[in-house]
Design goal:
Blueprint: H1 36-49, E1 55-58, H2 65-75, E2 83-87, H3 96-101, H4 119-122, E3 127-131, H5 138-150, E4 152-153, E5 162-163, E6 167-172, H6 176-181, H7 187-193, E7 196-199, H8 209-224, H9 233-241, H10 247-261, H11 284-302, H12 307-314, H13 318-328
Parallel strand pairs: 1-6, 1-7, 2-3, 3-6
Antiparallel strand pairs: 4-5
Helix pairs in contact: 1-2, 8-10, 11-12, 12-13
Length: 331
């Protein structure tokens, strides 16, 4: 039977649809840096921009993954189309499906009467940037995989597929292969998204930190209406000797404080010689396990305890689900 595709006009959308409101704000020229490492990084962006293939941007927090995505869009043949972004970690799991795929009017309590387009519809003709893809709920990953395979979505509460035409770019600061092994990320989705990869260099591996700091100082000083100070030899030594766990974002914060206080200082929390009770910490493995347990509970609740249907919803085999339940002691 022939598929019927939904044709949605701007007048039917519940919110104004102005493609110019979703545009990349940065270009390759905004990626500041010198040396072979930065040249290779920019070359990787140029290569990825030449193809309409899924791109995975990997890098630590604060390294500039979103900046890379903006530059990628600006270089691509889709630069005249929208650049739509969504942070998968910032949206509650019960709302992310409607955020991505949109919903029909009255689909759920509190829904707009006219419905609302999702990010996939808004990005048609351009690029969709899925930031923190590793935090996407496991139950939704199967829907995303189908979108990538069929180039169509169905709104929440909808009955007809909506055809879409866009490029997908993802970013993550998590080791996705570890999530795959832990059953937190679908292996088929991982391979579908990781066609072209871009690795954003962490700041501690760069040799051009003083150069970057000078450029950023001038930019921040202009924004604050202050004169640009010169970096001293001691400042340069401090910049090169620090590990920068917060990467470029942390560097910008330190330079901003310098312009305000007149002295370059780095906020490093030194361990106390006689610490009180330390705050409890959890390992990555523990956090992954906690999230996995929550996903399983949600799937079982949605399927009213039917394990076969829950496994299908989670995108794993029934045997895998039973193993996870056994580890929980809930089989």
């Amino acid at each position: 039977m022939k598929k019927t595709y939904s044709r949605i006009s701007k007048a039917e959308l519940a919110i104004p649809h102005n493609p110019r409101s979703w545009q990349s704000k940065f270009s390759l020229n905004d990626i500041i840096g010198t040396g072979e490492l930065m040249d290779s990084y920019r070359d990787a962006i140029k290569v990825a921009a030449a193809y309409e293939l899924p791109v995975m941007i990997c890098g630590e927090t604060g390294a500039g993954k979103e900046l890379a995505a903006h530059a990628l869009h600006a270089l691509s043949d889709r630069c005249a189309g929208p650049f739509v972004w969504v942070n998968c970690a910032s949206i509650p799991s019960e709302l992310i499906e409607a955020e991505l795929f949109g919903y029909e009017g009255g689909a759920f309590t509190g829904a707009r009467s006219q419905g609302k387009p999702g990010k996939f519809e808004l990005a048609t003709g351009g690029m969709l940037f899925l930031d923190e893809i590793g935090d996407m709920p496991l139950a939704l990953q199967g829907s995303l995989l189908r979108v990538l395979q069929m180039n169509e979505i169905v709104r929440v509460g909808g009955t007809n597929p909506v055809s879409i035409d866009l490029c997908i770019v993802c970013a993550t600061n998590k080791p996705l292969l570890d999530l795959v092994r832990a059953g937190r990320f679908r292996e088929d989705l991982y391979h579908r998204l990781n066609v072209l990869s871009i690795n954003v260099p962490p700041l501690r591996e760069r040799e051009d930190i003083p150069y970057l700091a000078e450029r950023l100082l001038a930019r921040i000083a202009g924004r604050l209406g202050k004169p640009t100070p010169n970096l001293t030899a001691q400042d340069r030594k401090l910049l090169l000797g620090y590990a920068w766990p917060g990467n470029v974002r942390e560097l910008e914060n330190g330079l901003t404080r310098m312009l305000i206080t007149g002295k370059l200082s780095i906020s490093v929390t030194e361990p106390s010689s006689n610490p009180a009770q330390p705050a409890p910490t959890t390992s990555l493995k523990q956090r992954i396990q906690s999230q996995t347990d929550a996903e399983i509970r949600t799937a079982l609740k949605q399927t009213q305890g039917n394990k076969s249907r829950a496994a299908e919803l989670l995108g794993i085999s029934r045997a895998h689900l039973y193993r996870l339940l056994k580890e929980q002691g809930a089989e």
